[in-house]
Protein 1
Amino acid sequence: MAQHHTDLPRLDQLTVACAHPDDESFGLGAVIAAFTEVGTQVDLVCLTRGENSTLRAGGDLGEQRARELGCAAQALGISTVSLLHHPDGGLDEVDLHRLIADIGAAAEGSQALLTYDHGGITGHPDHQRVTQAAIGAGRTLAIPVLAWALTSQVASALRDRFAVPFLGRDEDELDVTLAVDRTRQLAAIACHGSQLEGNPIPHARIELQGAEEHLRTLYRPDPSENPASSNESA
Ligand SMILES: [Zn+2]
């Protein structure tokens, strides 16, 4: 059985990589708040403006969602937001090296990246593409890539209730268990008005998760490949 840690990894600076405005709140909000509350500088890179959301598509949705993201970032204590213009629903068609370079540029100076678990939590192809690109950026920068993950029980309950292929992990696949306060996350979720109408999933998921969140480590640099960290002999 894997070792379980209940401590938040200590980081001065963390970059979060997401696909759509609202992922940082609906999904990673409580984890992001846990970091900002202990003084970690959290920067966000969001690869699309969410302009093709099936929940109220059309009009100036991209602009509205950019404003909602600004509101949510403030609620979560996020320092900077890089909102990029890759196509919502089309990240699979964007060159992977381009996405790796975009995430890498946003994460310059950070000690770790945080993104979704493999499978994208909801199975969304954009989420899975971001995970793939974040791992590429982690390798390039030689920093760990952490992932927000659901437990198998929560994912299974969500699959039963909603027609969404949520993917969860068994206990031995989860590296960190966090006790979280959801106050900031709930405030951030409320910023995303365009995505809340007729969408019971964010609150249902939080109810099932209770006060716990889980992280996995998707990539950790090999210290033997980094001469700067090798021991000096006197
Ligand atoms: Zn999303």
Note: The chain has eight helices and seven strands.
Protein 2
Amino acid sequence: MNASIQFNNVSLSYGDIADEVEVLKSISFSIDSNEVVSIVGPSGSGKTSIIMLASGLENATKGSIKINGDEIVGLKEKELSEVRRKNIGIVFQSFYLIPNLTALENVLLSLEANQQYGLEKDAENLLTEFGLSHRMHHLPSELSGGEQQRVAIARALINKPKIILADEPTGNLDSANSESMIDLLFDYTKKSNTSLVMVTHDSSIAKRCDRIIEIRDGQIV
Ligand SMILES: Nc1ncnc2c1ncn2[C@@H]1O[C@H](COP(=O)(O)OP(=O)(O)OP(=O)(O)O)[C@@H](O)[C@H]1O
Ligand SMILES: [Mg+2]
């Protein structure tokens, strides 16, 4: 009933008709508004593609995708970014921090994109919670991979999104740090009735989720 993400027979192809590659083949699934779901599967199976579609950063070739009940397939770029802004926090596989902004400024930028101002203290608190109190004013290039990842997660959470899409959020962390990062993500989702969709290669993390979606060759198995 209260599905936050609903895929119905969604296909995604790249290339033109002559050399079309079907990356996702008519997949259907639904994620409830407080569910924590992991997406697992081999490299190249289509996991990141699902994240890109759910966030409206890629257009489905066929099918229907609903975010909190609203169809997003066929929306214009401006409408998609509105849906994203209102509903979704994304943690990308390769962070995409803005290189010439400090850790704190990267998080603040996310607030400003949502027309939220004067929340510097909140951003500082979140970064502190993530163990980055001494790194707030550093540029991404001055941070370790794990620290950059924590900034990227803080940036996704600062707007209190109802849906978090995270592509390998612990890919660059050692096992102790990755456990504590996952604890933070799980705490947040439980506290705020948020759904979390997390791509992971780590089976111990996948097992902690409410449900596992396994994808192989662009299909759910
Ligand atoms: N822009 C693109 N143009 C053409 N093919 C693409 C494009 N992006 C992804 N693909 C192809 O789509 C398939 C699925 O890619 P995707 O990134 O979703 O895989 P993944 O499951 O996330 O893999 P990994 O675990 O390595 O991150 C791959 O075969 C990839 O080469
Ligand atoms: Mg990927």
Note: Strands lie at 3-14, 21-32, 36-40, 62-67, 70-71, 88-91, 163-167, 195-199, 211-216, 219-220.
